[in-house]
Each structure stands twice: as C-alpha cells, then as structure tokens.
Amino acid sequence: MNRFVLIPVFGVVSACGDLAVPDFRNLGDTAAPAVQTPAAVIAPTVQLGPKDRLVAAAEAQGCVISTANAASVTAAASVSKEELEAALLSLVTEGLAAPNADNALELKTANCTA
Fold first, then answer.
1. pLDDT at residue 18, as a whole number
2. How many CA atoms lie within 13 Å of 98's alpha carbon, on the beta-carbon side?
3. CA nearest 56: which of 114, 95, 112, 113?
4. What is the 3-state secondary structure (H, E, C) of 19-73?
5. Cα separation of 55 and 91, whole Å?
6. 94 falls within a domain
7. Which of 9, 34, 62, 105 is the most buried (most CB within 10 A)?
8. Please, which residues have CB within 8 angstroms of residue 60's CB and are 6 or more apart in sequence?
9. Verdict on whether the full-model pTM lies above 0.85
10. Distance between CA 103 and CA 43 in Å, rounded?
11. How many domains does the chain have?
C-alpha cells in the first residue's frame, strides 16, 4: 500500500518548479574561467557654476542681457539674485561683458563675436 502512495507524491514533486541539479562533471577542468567584460563606464556630469550658466543662457539669447530678456536669461540660467550680481560683476571685471549704448550688457565671449 505504501508503494502506491509514494509514486504519485514523487510525480507531483518533480513536476513542481525548476528543480535543476548543478552540473558537477567539469570540476576537474583547469581551464581559465571566462573573462567577463566590465560594464560600460558612465562619465560623471559636470556641474556648471552660476557664471557659466549665465553666460550660456545669454549666449543662447543673442549675447545681450537687457531689461527685455533679463528675466528669461536668469530663469534659463537658474541663478539667484546674489549669484546674478556676483556673476555680472565677475564678467565685467574679467572683460567678458561690457555695457552698450542701449543700457544692456553685451557679452564678449568666444561665442559672441560680432
């Protein structure tokens, strides 16, 4: 009687899931393991400072910061009022910006040659 009960139990257990048995036949091999290639290295992103962000935003809008576009330039550069003042002062003292006849600040960078 016990023999007939065990056969269906083994049949059910063997049908359940993935009962994979590891392959131990190659334990004596001395071949070198397969070389795994390293994952792709992602270059770190460079965070620009407030002055660089301001210059990039002004260059994108015609190389002039005037009362007409000042709000959009500062929003595109995402600079605070304090950062804006420091960046503008730095640009003027470095000779990278100068006021023009229209009371606007004109950039004198490599991308803004007129």
1. 62
2. 7
3. 112
4. CCCCCCCCCCCCCCCCCCCCCCCCCCCCCCCHHHHHHHHHHHCCCEECCCCHHHH
5. 9
6. yes
7. 105
8. 76
9. no
10. 42
11. 1
First-last CA distance in the chain: 101
Q: How high is the pLDDT of residue 4?
A: 53
Count of positions (residues) in the chain: 114
Domain that holds residue 54: 50-107
Average pLDDT along the chain: 79
Q: In what order do the strands lie in the sheet with 64-65?
A: 64-65, 105-107, 97-99
Rounded CA-CA distance 50/65 in Å is 15
Q: Mean pLDDT across the stretch 62-90?
A: 91
Q: Is residue 66 part of a domain?
A: yes
As a 3-state breakdown, the chain gives helix, strand, coil percent values, each rounded to 5, of: 40, 5, 55
Nearest alpha-carbon partner for 61 in 43, 45, 37, 77: 77
Q: Is residue 27 part of a domain?
A: no
